[in-house]
Amino acid sequence: MLLAATTLLFATSCMDGEHCNITKAKVVSAQFSVSVAQSASTRTIADGKKVDEVAWAIYENGELATDLTNYYGTLKLDNNQQAQFAVSMVLGRTYDIAFFAYKADGEAVESMLRQPNAKYYNVLFADKKIELKTENLKANDDELDCFWLYHEGLEISGPIIPIPDNYVPERPEDIEDIKHDYIGDNQLIIEKGFTLTRPVAKLNFAAEDEDIDGARNSGFTISDTALEITSYTSFNIAEGKVDENSVKSIKFSRTDSPIDDNSAIIEAKLESGEVKSFKCLAMTYLFANTQQLTSGVTLHTWDQYGEFLNTISCESAPMRRNHNTLLVGNLLSNSANFSIIISNAYDNPNNNYDANQQ
To answer: Which among 170, 230, 318, 327 has the fewest CB atoms less than 10 Å away?
Structure first.
């Protein structure tokens, strides 16, 4: 699942000197178009559709570009998970731009100079980081899904026509206008495309049908699950990596297991080449790096009568940013023997590999 953003930078070119409305300003309108790429999968878990708001911020020389009229804000994604906005940026300058897409806390809002309002994250653009809100987290909550991009070196360029010495504007106030650079009647469009990916890994405890059927034949099934995980709670948006000093013990409270939710079925390609389907017992999202990290994870389970079943732990579960980690095995028993599979595409089993072989 990807988030795509397209930038259209508008400048103009002069075709007829008599009609050029020229000013000394060199500020142009940059129009951004943001959309969520649609997955080929028909499943609803991890399809990115829980994301409904996008926060953005513009930087210059490593700092927020506060000299711009609007240098940050939020966007509301429509039913097609698309949004557009425009800001004024200065020709001849180079900017960095950050995007973070998330589930809003309440109704998603589109507004300039509005602080992000993410349900589960603190978005701190001034500090270039995103923090997980570690209170009141729930297991199996797809609203923790999020997308991010920090793009460096966005050059704002276009044709600039010098003001003739003998030029007399139709409106004298045009010379003092610093909001627009009217350098012609025709419009030049400079288009740039961006792709937003997850700054998180998706962690799944999963089981095979035989394991689940065997448990049901014994008279029980998993109804609820909870998670305890020792992992990173802060992500540096400019560097694209976790804050090594942000490790905490995180509790994801007991909720309904997605074990019987067909949208949560996970396909994985085994080392043998066989593609198998697994049912998800519990899942969540965690900050991760491009290079593999490990986290200690613990699964707690309850049966259909509300009785506690068992606890299963993995001291070193591998995770990688924008990847899917599956802890697969006989998880309905007291055994902790499971294999580990990591996928770099959430809905493509051909991109799975055995993490133990890396």
So the answer is: 170
Q: How confident is the model at residue 174 (pLDDT cuts 50, 70, 90)?
A: low
User: At CB < 8 A and 24+ separation, what contacts does 173-177 make?
Assistant: 174/21, 174/22, 174/23, 175/23, 175/24, 176/23, 177/23, 177/25
Question: Hunting for tokens 């711009």 — which residue is that?
Answer: 68
State both tokens at 330: 């006989």
Cα separation, 221 vs 305, whole angstroms: 9
pLDDT at 331: 67
Distance of alpha carbon 207 from its chain centroid, rounded? 27
Query: Which residue do the tokens 């699964």 mark?
Result: 299
pLDDT over 70 (residue 192): no
- CA–CA separation, 358 vs 356, rounded Å? 6
Contact 8, 33 (CB under 8 A): yes
Q: How far apart are CA 284 and CA 204, in angstroms?
A: 7
CA distance 325 to 99: 25
From CA 73, how far away is CA 111, in angstroms rounded?
Answer: 6
CB atoms within 10 A of CB 62: 9
As a whole number of angstroms, the distance between CA 169 and CA 23 comes to: 8
358/354 Cα distance (integer angstroms): 7
Handedness of CA 54, 60, 61, 64 (dihedral sign): negative
List, in order, residues 6 or more apart from 171 with CB less than 8 Å away: none
pLDDT per residue as tens digits for the range 77-132:
877 777 778 888 888 889 999 999 999 999 999 999 999 999 999 999 999 999 99
Please state the pTM of the whole predicted model: 0.82
Q: What is the rounded CA–CA span in Å between residue 36 and residue 34? A: 7
CA distances from 141 to 47, 105, 126 (A): 13, 14, 28
pLDDT single digits (tens) 4-16: 554 444 443 333 4
Tokens representing 163? 């003001």
User: How far apart, in whole angstroms, are the C-alpha atoms of residue 205 and residue 283?
Assistant: 6
